[in-house]
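Input chain follows. Return structure tokens only.
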Amino acid sequence: MAKGVDLRISRVTVPTLREDPADAEVSSHALLIRAGMMRQIAAGIYSLLPLGLLALVRVEEIVRDEMNKKGACEIALPYIHPADVWIESERWFKYGPEMMRLKDRQGRDFCLGPTAEELVTKYFASTAPSYKDLPINIYQIQTKFRDEPRPRYGLLRAREFRMMDAYSFHTSSSDVDKTYEEMHDAYLNIARRCSLDARVVEASTGLIGGDISHEFMVISQVGEDVIVYCKNCNYGANAELERHRPTRIFGGNKEEPISEVHTPGIFSVDDVASFLGITPERVLKCVLYVVQGEVLAVFVPGYRDVSEEKLKRFLGTDEFHPLRDDEREIFPELTPGFTGPVGLKGARVLFDLEVKGAKNLVCGANKEDYHLTGVDEGRDFMAEPLADIACAVQGDGCPECDGYLEIAHGIEIGHIFKLGLKYSEVLGANFTDRDGSLKPAHMGTYGIGTTRILQTIVEQHRDSQGIRWPKACAPLQVEIIVLSPSDPMQNEVLVMLEGMFKNMGIQALVDEREVSAGVKFNDADLIGLPLQVVVGSKVSKGMLDLKIRYTQERGDFSIDNAAGAIKKALDSAP
């Protein structure tokens, strides 16, 4: 528990606000500002005030403790990175405008570190270790910088933020697997100790690179990532990597003759289905993309969307976009809104796996204002090439058990990667093996956002009155509310409580402002410390009021038994 001089509420140290700030888009962002825990300096850049900083310290203490338990060693790398090492790894240009760059007085290029794979790999390379020294896992807790194109949601998508980043070096990929599992366990422990229910999902490796990665997601309506997970087993994946088992029947149950139907001005899946008196499960959807100068017609079941992330992986490029209105004249053979696979000309085709074998479909007739009915795959067109390119929908089957998939938004709090030899081969991070030869080290990298965890805790633990801090990560454990600061008896009890808390190793927040009791109670609930001890008129009877903020439980206790009552209340608080 935090120790030190008790913190007094004032307009300087805890500047609470009555109303939500205009630029706060989510509740947790608004509450951190209203509760006097942070203030914005510029878009995506925040100062943490005393209570906000204390909460962050608590979170980082938990992170540090779990990392140390796994045998990781803490280091401190520079915030400013020379461009040379990033150019050597070929990420200087790949990182793009999110990297904050600068020059020194000699005109040499530097950046403010968004991550530190390059620096830590160079550090390892300079040590020339033996296989006997491996594995090693080193970490730091540091401020990082990424020039987000649209900073939003406070600390959830900021341009300057705190994170723990760890890096491990190994003699083999199987040895990486062991540390990867240790970090997996450590991250779940961190989430649990911060009272967050995290789900582990398969994820893209992105700019970090490597072979395999997993994200740690907290389900939340304000999350910017879409995740797919099974409640029946541990399967989970980011929407860009999800696998699903279709549970709906796509197409009809019987074959019918193909027929052309006039559908004037009707081209959306729902409108076509309504016009024909069928469901979207009978409609074959087509989305047209322009890929490196030519059109690709992507066909998926009508009740699904195209996953552009899956499409990107299939094509091996992100250089594509949906056909724009101003590009239609360039491809005159196509009829957007009425495009189908039967007799299609002027475009390449790609089909989702679910289309194979589908019968009695409705699709575009490649003719303005017309659709075809009774279309069968295999008879009227061939679904080739095939790929998993469609998004999952609620109720799809789990690919790994007989359960069903849930689709939700999630806040990413952590990400772990198996890097393989991506950085060590390029940057010369070698170790001396048993036979005396130099070999590149296998690597893993692991990041968890501490400021992001801080705000996620607030997002998950709040009510209509304010924040409800779980005691493990609360900035302070107790707030003492003195209702009449000018009353000598109440001041005497305050001095007694401060001495008692000091002996217990507890730092308290003290509200002894000359304001109404209502203002004090509202601010106490807004700030949300686990316990509220009210020093009021009952002191004349030797009693104090106690409230557990999380559960709203209230009760009186004797001043003579204050230490025992406080300890019991803290032990029972969530």
